[in-house]
Amino acid sequence: MRRVVALLDRVSKQYGSGENATWALRSVCLEIEQGEFVALVGPSGCGKSSLLHLLAGIDRPSQGRVVVLGQSLGELEERKLTELRLGRIGIVFQFFNLLPTLTAEENVELPGLLRGMAPKEARQRARALLEEVGLSHRGRHRPEQMSGGEMQRVAVARALLLEPALVLADEPTGNLDSEASQTVIELFRDLGRRHGATLVLATHSQEVAAASSRIVRMRDGQILGEEPVGRKP
Ligand SMILES: Nc1ncnc2c1ncn2[C@@H]1O[C@H](COP(=O)(O)OP(=O)(O)OP(=O)(O)O)[C@@H](O)[C@H]1O
After folding, report:
1. Does the ipTM surpass 0.90?
2. Which of ligand 1's atoms lies nearest the C-alpha of 40?
């Protein structure tokens, strides 16, 4: 059965006001189904990150409706929104956002511990995920002892700890060389298959877009068009 995981209904987002107002998104409509791997592409400033922030519940729309996993985000009180964000949505940023004083294993298990998961279970899950991203041997290393590609894989593992239904990634390969990018792309393609996750990511990379199942082209805060890539994640 067709299941819509995320929906934007005539969503606009304005930053600032008066003379400084910028419309980052203008009446955007988008529907994302379970298991899709959607790549948002378009020139810098076209609104990709703004769209991801709305889906993540980090930001609220100025107009329109954002529905994620059956919840209308505009109507959710802050506590419920945080719960949804932490528990059901995995987020991967370009700059990794790993905590520098923690080891890879500790970084990955952190979302579990914050949600009250038993430490033993969090550790077991973290180890299994690090193995999945090919980093079992790096579990005790801190971010500064790892390459950019390795840190990004740790960030992907961390985003998956709570088995999110929706994974959002902003330029996940932006700081990586082509070999490391390839590994991260493969990882994303595997995610849907192995974890049943739905993926939405913003990218400037042709390779990442080509690995997706649908490319959404944006410009000036609007969706210009879409194309199926024909490859399921
Ligand atoms: N916090 C903010 N305050 C003011 N303006 C903002 C803010 N965030 C984004 N904008 C503006 O909104 C527009 C869309 O920005 P956004 O970051 O969503 O684009 P993007 O497509 O992700 O760009 P990039 O590819 O460079 O990351 C831009 O004009 C940007 O300057």
Report:
1. yes
2. 21
